[in-house]
Amino acid sequence: MDYEIQQQEKFTFIEVGEGEPLLLLHGLFGALSNFTDLVERFRGSYKVIVPILPLFDLDIFHTTVGGLEKHVQKFIELRGYTGIHLLGNSLGGHVALVHVLKHPEKIKSLILTGSSGLFENGMGDTYPKRGDYEYIKTKTQVTFYDPATATKELVDEVFEITNNRIKVIKIISLAKSAIRNNLGDQVSKIEQPTLLIWGNNDIITPPFVGEEFNKLIPNSELHFIDKCGHAPMMEVPQEFNNILEKFLHKLNEPVA
After folding, report:
1. What is the C-alpha separation between 215 and 187, in angstroms, rounded?
2. 77-92: pLDDT as tens digits
């Protein structure tokens, strides 16, 4: 499904539907396509928003988790969103965590899936020579339990990014920033209801990371999905969306 890409000031995003804002943050190699099934499922009852994070557009000093969080904060201010359900995958989860710790007042709930912030295995410490398509294909496939989820289009997208020297430098900068920016001693301050959805076969942020988040974030619940890797909303969208729908529905139930 194609969505109208909107532009306002320096922000690029999609926004569909009406209702409480459900704001989705993609990861390091993420794109709008990561959330297609989620957008389609929830656009009938929520205002679903996906900002394109400026992974490659910030100057190198601001190509950090903190720099991305500032971008998200300014975007929320510009658009006037309140009562937000904030969802992040991988690096997007890390940005969501930093945001809710700095600016909790407009966030109604937090949803993390395969989030960094405590521990992650990234692309590795070394990048291959530019042009090594098979290496990139293998690295993209390990994101998923089923390697076939890494379509040729997805591998081509990642290959294009890693074949650009400036983009590679920025990816490394973001990856190092994520490792440095460990939130283990801060996440216990999060008061919002928090949903953790983790792939049982995630090797980038393994299941113990979800368990640790669950232990540290007071008002949190953890769901594991079997035969699923680092991006549950892409690999098992129906199961992911069912868990998310129940969580959101529960938040809006009247208190007896």
Report:
1. 10
2. 999 999 999 999 999 9
